[in-house]
Amino acid sequence: MTTVLIVNDQALQRLGLRLLLEAEPGLTVVGEATDGAAAVRAAQNLRPDIVLMDMGPPDENSLQAIRRIAGPGTLPEAVGPDRGNRNHPRVLVLTPDHSDEYACAALRVGVGGLLVRDALPEQLTAAIHIVALGGSVLSPQLTRRLIDAVRAWTPADCPERRRQLSHLTVREREVLTALASGWSNTEIAERLSIAQTTVKTHVSSILAKIGVRARAQAVVFAYETGLVKPP
User: From the CA atom positions of the chain, what is the Rg in Å?
Assistant: First the structure.
């Protein structure tokens, strides 16, 4: 069962999201929050698998909340007889389709997925399942503009990024390039003639070496460093 924390500052919207998600097999809503500070507290106490975040006009407070929820070392480990050691919640953000800068910033601080607010119900529930399993989701409406934004905002000189990229093996660069091209683990395994378990191992190593938690952040890194170039 995938557990979800809903973060939204509108009561009717929270109710609508709860009704939608609880009607989906395999999903259960464990709590609600109205703002970033409340979301951080609820994430720490409830340890949901997914934090579904839509907090109105995007601002630095919401980015800080995402960073605290999704970032390594920011929430204490949840340990208990019914939990074991649980990983940090993954964050899925609903964003207005015109907010390119906020969407790109959200990717940088660790979101697992970005959907536009007018996404279909089945797109939302599918995205929650994908992000809960460690995958990344990005609305097609945002993909091209985000790639352009990342490339436009990349510093001319970024020695730290270059250093991190230099630590990747040739195979890890191939896997990262495939990730940034939108390939699934299954597709990467088939095209590189390696096992899916090996792909997962490479992805975990890539994330550790470049200092990020989410695959979406790794995709941003690939474009920032010029490893992958927009078509």
Answer: 17
Closest CA to 4 of 39, 37, 55: 39
The DSSP H or E segment spanning 60 is helix 60-70
Place of tokens 């470049």: 210
- Could you please state the CATH topology (level 3) that the domain comprising 2-149 is classified under: Rossmann fold (3.40.50)
Contacts made by residues 167-175, CB under 8 angstroms, sequence distance 24+ = 167/209, 167/210, 168/206, 168/209, 168/210, 171/202, 172/202, 172/205, 172/206, 172/209, 173/227, 175/199, 175/202, 175/203, 175/206
Domain 155-224 sits in CATH 3.30.160.70: no
For residue range 187-231, list pLDDT tens digits in order: 999 999 999 999 999 999 999 999 887 777 788 788 778 888 765
Question: The tokens of 130 are what?
Answer: 């994908």
- What's the rounded Cα separation, in Å, for the pair 72 and 88? 8
- Single pTM value for the model: 0.70
Cα–Cα distance for residue pair 28/25, rounded to 1 Å: 8
Element (H, E) at 95: strand 90-95
Euclidean distance between CA atoms 119 and 177, whole angstroms: 27
Domain with CATH 3.40.50.2300 in the chain: 2-149
Length of the chain as a residue count? 231
